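Researcher: Please translate sequence to structure tokens.
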Amino acid sequence: MPDDAVWRLATWEGNRRRQHEEFRALPFREKIAIIEQLAEVTALFAARRRVRGLPVSTPEGRGSEGR
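Model: Translation complete:
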């Protein structure tokens, strides 16, 4: 791999572009599995914040679940 290719990935934008390319290359089932895992992690962090009495942001239109 040429040196310029390595440096292009070293930027925030280059890394973000690479992440998008890798995600697009995944089969649909794997994409769904990753999205479900991310939702589980989000729920875990939200639950921890609620236990500590910290505010929890929710998607617009869903109200203030668990606050």
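Researcher: Any highlights?
Model: Helices lie at 3-9, 12-25, 28-51.
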